[in-house]
From TrEMBL:
Its EC number is 2.7.11.1. Residues 382-403 are annotated as: Disordered. The keyword Cytoplasm applies. This is 3-phosphoinositide-dependent protein kinase 1. The lineage of its organism: Eukaryota, Metazoa, Ecdysozoa, Arthropoda, Crustacea. It is found in: Cytoplasm. GO terms for molecular function: ATP binding; protein serine/threonine kinase activity. ATP binds at K86. It catalyses: L-threonyl-[protein] + ATP = O-phospho-L-threonyl-[protein] + ADP + H(+); L-seryl-[protein] + ATP = O-phospho-L-seryl-[protein] + ADP + H(+). GO terms for cellular component: cytoplasm. Residues 57-329 form the Protein kinase domain. Pfam families: PH_3, Pkinase. SUPFAM superfamilies: PH domain-like (SSF50729), Protein kinase-like (PK-like) (SSF56112). Its main location: cytoplasm.
Amino acid sequence: MSRLTNWHQPVEKVGEYIKHLSYSVLRTSMEGSTMPKSPKVEKGLKGTSDKRSDKDFIFGKLIGEGSFSSVYLAKDIHTDLEYAVKVCDKDHIRKEKKVEYIIREKDVMNILNSKQNPKAPFFVKLYYAFQGATKLYFVMTYCKYGELLNLIQRVGFFDRECTRFYTAEIVRALEHLHSLNIIHRDLKPENILLDEDMHIKITDFGCAKILTDDNVEAINDGRKRKSSFVGTAQYVSPELLDSKTCGPGSDLWALGCIIYQMVSGLPPFRSKSEYFIYQKILKLEYDFPDGFCEVAKDLVQKLLVIKSEDRLGAKDKECYPSIRAHPLFNGLDFDSLHEITPPKVAPNLPHTENEIQWDLRNQPGLNSLELELEFGLDLEDDKSESKSAKSTDPGASRKPVKKNLADVSPEDYVLRLAEQERENKWHRFTEGNLILKQGLMDKRKGLFPRRRMFLLTTGPHFYYIDPVNMVLKGQIPWSSTITPEAKNFKTFFVHTPNRTYYLEEPNGRAPEWCKAIEEVKKFYYPD
């Protein structure tokens, strides 16, 4: 046979269509599954056939990409319902030998469809599967708010309440998954999606393992059973690296890594190469940054344990009561999580034990800087403004600073730019723009600070450079909605549409930076 067969049908009727891909026929075992339908879906399907093809969907934007697939937002023309449609290239699957991944994902989603737990609706559902001449199509739940990873990156890190809630939902999902003898094996923030109500939906079961009775017996007896190496470097468990064995404990290890990342902003095991990441995992080589929630820290330490049988929850027979009993979850009802409105995720101020909340250079009393910080009042006179500019703004000594930092006359612009090119070693990073303000600041990624040279320039641009290696690391994107927010004299946020940047000015000039950003914004975006 030269083409795929048995794909133009709903999930419950999809037969064997993947397994023999190398022989030009994709087959997979999907018998016995039931297509999940809400009342709205049932109503929308009245008068239509359950069969679907790509002609039954309007394909919109690309919302995800994998090693052998692309995911599109699509609308069913019969029901107007939105779905995420994974499109896989048959030739690429064949070439990359990913047939088993496709089979495995379909089998797992089939089981989850047929054995749903109303108290743990935390999985992406498969609604339809069909084929074209060169493509395979999987019609799945559309999760409006994307990956958990993107949310963590956008806000930097989660506060305790958000960490508590989303950890609990992941635990509840794992309880159900493991009760079905399924191990995910690639649990990570990229594979945890957020639906329109901001509840989690776990996805990507290509690396999952369905345990047979022999597998379960071997794990319960503590016997090792070889398994193929799968997973993502930062979240893979020691037993998968060391002996290629796996059990539910592998997912509990990944849970510990995810909790660490939610609290700090980065995974616990990090390096420039996978080899060194693996070495750190095997040696349990990681640490906690200042400001890490102590209660969450205790839970992470009880999950990131080398021996899988010693991890919290590993000895639990049904669900994970030992994890539920952890102080992080005090007062939380795990069986009603799906009915609770998730806590609001917002940027948080990193708190460290040695953080100083005041500027020691200031005189006693409520001075102008404090008034500006607290009430947004611009009380600085020309003298103090010029003094501040002289120490931090290139070219400011040439003439008094104007009302607006970016309002530079053409003549002065040419002179200052020429001087900058001659004397300022950071000029080569500016793309020919005039530096309006520069200074060393700590750019935080979660709880982890990195010292960077920041250049606020005409254009406008906001560059940041690694001052040790003299490498441009990036720019804070400008738009009419960019908003600085001073939290204290040293720390301030820069809010952009897709991310909030956490910056720390070591000399206590955070309000001055906020004012400079506001002036540049006002100059370039007057409305």
